[in-house]
Write a structure and sequence with these properties.
This protein is α+β, with helices and mostly antiparallel strands. A hairpin with a 2-residue loop joins strand 4 and strand 5. The relative contact order is 0.19. Bound molecules: 2-amino-4-trifluoromethylsulfanyl-butyric acid and cobalt (II) ion (2 copies). One cobalt (II) ion binds next to loops. The site of one cobalt (II) ion (CO) has 5 residues, from loops.
């Protein structure tokens, strides 16, 4: 890797670790009775107190510091007075800025007891993301990433959302290339050492179609089926990859046993 890339990786590590620490920290609060707004407040303070800033706040007019996507919400759910209920599944998506660099990561949370179907969906989404991460090294192509995710998800009987994708991330929140979560092997751009991007598959229990609500942000499944998502920020090294947003506590997927 080039010298600049090593410097960039150093900052991506700091930002990625703060984002992931924030998810670790909020895990114990995810119980019936808490509002998504309270989750937003606690995480906002934690990020600020640890020398970072929440990238979503005022990003393209977004008015909260993170996204909370419940049940059939695919992504970009807006924190509100909504109280978490037993049986809900929730994605919390955090992007922390440290020294101008971004760490972008999300995990699913189960509130109380959730259905077997929901657990299977969450599990498949996590495994699909990890399957794609595990193949990463220079020369792998973006289509290979999409193929890993799509083939695994569809084998489980679920569908991959097409309307949102992963993205390059560094000192810019969203930059090229787009990382599609579906695709064909041996297709698309070749990845190179020093690249930094997210992989963040959204997986629906039903069909992949999505619509955005009148608030301009909240994306939901058209058929009202459940949706799950995980996200990591990753860097490509000379012979593999580094996950910048790995949990210090091993909180990879539910149950977190915190
Ligand atoms: N964190 C989201 C992503 O993974 C983007 C959220 S933008 C916001 O790219 F404005 F909705 F917060
Ligand atoms: Co992202
Ligand atoms: Co994100």
């Amino acid at each position: 890797m080039k010298d600049n890339d090593l410097k960039k990786f150093q900052k991506m590590r700091l930002a990625g670790n703060l984002a992931s620490k924030t998810l670790d920290m909020i895990t114990g609060y995810i119980k019936p009775g808490i509002t998504t707004e309270k989750i937003d407040q606690i995480c906002y303070e934690f990020i600020k107190d640890n020398g970072g800033y929440s990238a979503p706040l005022y990003y393209r007019g977004f008015k909260k510091s993170l996204c909370t996507s419940l049940n059939h919400v695919v992504c970009h759910g807006i924190p509100s007075e909504r109280i978490l209920d037993d049986g809900d599944i929730l994605n919390i998506d955090i992007t922390a800025i440290v020294e101008d660099y971004h760490g972008d990561t999300s995990r699913m949370f189960c509130v109380g007891n959730v259905s077997v179907k929901a657990k299977n969906l969450i599990n498949a989404t996590y495994e699909a993301m990890m399957n794609a991460i595990k193949i990463l090294k220079p020369g792998v192509r973006l289509g290979d990433i999409g193929y890993e995710i799509q083939s695994y998800v569809e084998k489980k009987g679920f569908s991959v959302v097409r309307d949102f994708c992963g993205h390059g991330v560094s000192n810019v929140f969203h930059e090229p290339p787009n990382i599609l979560h579906y695709g064909k092997k041996n297709n698309g751009l070749e990845i190179k050492p020093g690249m930094t991007f997210t992989i963040e598959p959204m997986v629906n229990a039903g069909k992949y179609d999505v619509k955005v609500l009148n608030d301009g942000w909240t994306a939901v499944t058209k058929d009202k089926s459940l949706s799950a998502q995980f996200e990591h920020t990753i860097g490509i090294t000379d012979n593999g990859y580094e996950i910048f947003t790995e949990s210090d506590k091993g909180y990879n997927k539910p149950p977190y046993n915190n």
